[in-house]
Amino acid sequence: MCGIVGYVGYRQACPVIIKGLHRLEYRGYDSAGVALIGRDGQIELYKCKGKVEDLEHFLEGKDTESTIGIGHTRWATHGAPNDANAHPHFSQSGRIALIHNGIIENFRVLKDALKSHGYTFRSSTDSEVLVNLIEYIQDTNECTLEEAVRMALRQVVGAYAIAIVKRGDPDRIIAARQSSPMAIGIGEGEYFLSSDAASIIDYTQKFVYLNDGEVAVIEKGKPLQIKTLEGEASQVNIQKLEMSISQLEKGGFPHFMLKEIHEQPDTLVDCIRGRVSPDSREIILSGVLDNKERFLKAGRIIFVACGTSWHASLIGEHLIENLCRIPVEVEYASEFRYRNPIIRPDDVVIAVSQSGETADTLAAVEIARREGAFVYGICNVIGSSIARATDSGTYIHVGPEIGVASTKAFTGQVTVMAMLALVVGKLRGTLAEEEYHQMADALLRLPDTIRKVLECAPAVEKLSGIFTYAHNFIYLGRGYNYPTALEGALKLKEISYIHAEGLPAAEMKHGPIALIDAEMPTVVIATLDHTYEKTVSNIEEIKARGGKIIAVISEGDTQLRKRADFCIEVPSTAECLMPVVSIIPLQLLAYYIAVNKGRNVDQPRNLAKSVTVE
């Protein structure tokens, strides 16, 4: 949520910032703004409600001559989306400008204290409170801005990534983070700043990722300085980010989401490459093998995740219990952090997050570590907060995912979970050698299997036209494909705004079947597995009540082709990998229905890609 971009160097700052903000549009936002230090040393602040495009129009004809600036896209938390609440925010004197991602939980207490000292506020935001607190501390303590920032942040409760510029100081930005991402790009005689390094990859591949409780002084022509809130020097650890700019572009597709759906054969190659040997069919996950004693002695595995990652974790539960015979629990991270959970020293907690910045999941990681559990991360973004906070883990390596509705991250997460379950199952001796190698073969064939599934896209596009104006959907699945039904329903909700509900197929008769009529389409995942006959019976129950059935079936299934109203055939693979196959037509169905309804597929309303607030 929210996006931060900053620049100080020899280039014109405004074009760099605007380009970076466009790259961050996937995160979800409702207003945008920039603060630039002009040639006269004054801070010029331009902001407005709406998209970055609206900001560009607002900037037309304005004096944007500057080599230093900060920019922001805001997702509303405190105060309505409007010009006043948009970032950046000035301090009362206009001397300091600040942008902020996150939430200041104790802002009301701080605001009341500042009001008692004569401060007034132009916005409803917690962020304006923070910039005035910094100014008040600097004035009353007669200290440097850097010292004032560190002193102010020691009074703050909450999450933040902030960037600050000061009037008359055209060479310096101060940045800090706590539970919200912040990356500093290192160029030749210039620095870049962003909440997502991918947004500034055009300019540099060298990045420093701030840790919680660190403050950076970014000054043109001088080495980067990083200190703790207590003023102790921190190590400047420069990392190289390997990423192609083409990964951040649509590549001829009308939307990022469609591109990312069609990328899945290639992203799964990247996910599997180097981990499954085509010759020996051995699976190597160093994050597991380097910590095999923790997995061998694990009394329980707990997944913590949100949204799509939670659905993938439900599949992980099936995989680990079936292949490793370890008890598994799957927790919503947002509930886990407030539930006073029982965590034992022999527990393995697996944190799953595409961005690696999900605030609720990160908080769950901190709880698990505090209680002595071994914490394993599964995420996509290298150098992300969860990747750094966990004891070990595995990247899914599916490349940047720009569309807000997750697609390739889901299939990558499930694929990594399958590899993890196979490695742990072999270590524990709960998996027969023959089954292990059969599964390895299925993983190696998976990208080609997905290529074949994608051939159904024209048929799904045609089918979507029939159901574009349905008001409700039910999605049903059993076993491994029950979480797939949940994920299919979520995709439709997210981007088409049609109400959809995912259910275990057998639960239909325990209440939801009352909803069935000719106006309620039901999507059933009914591929050939050990629950197939039971799923067929559930379909018959729906048909007997006049319901319309869209069935995802295995190739060559003549029985269901006769019974369902509409069928989408998919190739078969190992049963535990079928969710990776069967989700593809559901992603396509949601996409084409949303397009037919004229929705903003890549940036659906009210949603953000990286949920960094509670």
Task: Record the SSE blueprint.
Elements: E1 3-8, H1 13-23, E2 31-37, E3 43-49, H2 52-59, E4 68-74, E5 89-90, E6 96-104, H3 107-116, H4 126-141, H5 145-153, E7 158-166, E8 172-178, E9 183-186, E10 191-194, E11 206-209, E12 214-219, E13 225-228, E14 238-240, H6 256-262, H7 264-272, H8 286-289, H9 292-296, E15 300-305, H10 307-324, E16 328-332, H11 333-336, E17 347-353, H12 359-370, E18 374-379, H13 385-389, E19 392-395, H14 408-428, H15 433-453, H16 457-467, E20 472-477, H17 481-496, E21 499-504, E22 521-526, H18 532-543, E23 548-554, H19 558-563, E24 566-570, H20 578-596
Parallel strand pairs: 15-16, 15-17, 17-18, 18-19, 20-21, 20-22, 22-23, 23-24
Antiparallel strand pairs: 1-4, 1-10, 2-3, 2-4, 5-6, 6-7, 7-8, 8-12, 9-10, 9-11, 11-14, 12-13
SS-derived structural category? alpha/beta
Strand content: 15-25%
Indicate the radius of gyration in whole angstroms. 25 Å
The strand count comes to 24
Number of helices: 20
Overall morphology: globular
Q: Can you summarize this structure?
A:
This protein has 614 residues and is α/β, with parallel strands linked by helices. It is built from 20 helices and 24 strands.
List the main descriptive attributes of the protein structure presented here:
Rossmann fold; 24 strands; Glutamine Phosphoribosylpyrophosphate, subunit 1, domain 1; 614 residues; 3 domains
Please provide a written account of the structure:
The mean pLDDT is 92. Strand 22, helix 18 and strand 23 form a beta-alpha-beta unit. This protein is an alpha/beta fold and 614 residues long. The protein has 3 domains: 241 residues, Aminohydrolase, N-terminal nucleophile (Ntn) domain (Glutamine Phosphoribosylpyrophosphate, subunit 1, domain 1); 182 residues, Glucose-6-phosphate isomerase like protein, domain 1 (Rossmann fold, 3-Layer(aba) Sandwich); 141 residues, Glucose-6-phosphate isomerase like protein, domain 1 (Rossmann fold). The longest helix is centred in the C-terminal third of the chain and has 21 residues. Helix 7 packs parallel to helix 14 and helix 16 packs across helix 20.
